[in-house]
Amino acid sequence: MSDTTAPAMRRLCFEIFRFNPEDPNSKPHTQVFELDETPYMSLYMALSQIRETQDPGLQFDFACRSAICGSCAMMVNGRPALACRTLTADLPETVRLYPLPVFKLVGDLSVDTGIWFRQMAERTESWVHSQLPFDPQATEQRMEDDLAEAIYDADRCIECGSCVAACGMANINSEFLAAAGLNRVARFMLDPRDARSNADWFEVVSSEQGVFGCLGLMACEDVCPKELPLLEVYAYLRRHLLGAQLLRRAAGKTSS
Ligand code: SF4
Ligand code: FES
Asked: What is d(CA 153, CA 17) in angstroms, rounded to the nearest whole number?
């Protein structure tokens, strides 16, 4: 007697973007692969199976296979998602896969997010700025739980690039810091060990390339696989930077 409770497995059709930018004979196109769905199949498992059984040259990235390293993000039916945590059962029979936009294409579904994140880290100087001399004997300073949690929350970003790929402004302006960059800024603004003032931060993120360039489309928070509160990050930065701007104006009036 057949098990009527088991979900029917489907024949899946994957339309996958193919292109090798290093090969002058390669032209961007899509290639169709078919595969029998298996129970609890993730997109990562499906791609691995296609690579093992149909095309060993298919390029895509992965490392942790558990939503930690951020390397397997790709466009899945038009929306950024992590391949390792997307179940085929949650997708229609036809799955269209493209590399993330904005980032440098390595080949097929593989992009180099490292270049973008490194430039962002350099522009925002993503390290604690302190004038205090290093003291190996110094005792640790206790931080309020709420503050430590807020910093920890911002640090949960896995640099997958999904929020950048989903961002309309990041897609048309390569200098825009996007949610991932502004989340990084907020992380250091929150940190009491960082001696940068609001005025210093103003120089970094107050332009159209920073927090005021956001179009408010809100796609970033929608697609973040770590569910980071990215809209709150924008609100937090705007509040602080507007305060800094008012202070600058007031100081300018006093000195004139
Ligand atoms: Fe990925 Fe979220 Fe970090 Fe953006 S903020 S890079 S979506 S983990
Ligand atoms: Fe690491 Fe998917 S393989 S996040």
From this structure: 34
pLDDT in tens, 184-235: 999 999 999 999 988 888 888 888 888 888 988 889 999 999 999 999 998 8
Predicted model pTM: 0.90
Q: Which residues line ligand 1 (CB under 6 A)?
A: 157-163, 179-180, 183, 224-226, 228
Q: Ligand 2 center to residue 21 CA distance, Å?
A: 24
What confidence score (pLDDT) does residue 68 get?
A: 97
CA of residue 224 to ligand 1 center, whole Å: 5
> Sorting pLDDT into bands at 50, 70 and 90, what band is 85?
very high
* Nearest atom (ligand 2) to Cα of 70: 4
Specify the residue with its C-alpha closest to ligand 1, atom 4.
163
Residues of the chain with CATH 1.10.1060.10: 143-255
Compute the distance from residue 207 Cα to the ligand 1 centre, in Å.
22
Q: Where along the chain do the CATH 3.10.20.30 domains lie?
A: 11-111
- What is the Å distance from ligand 1's center to 26 Cα? 31
Q: Say if domain 11-111 classifies as CATH 3.10.20.30.
A: yes
CATH topology of domain 143-255: Fumarate Reductase Iron-sulfur Protein; Chain B, domain 2 (1.10.1060)
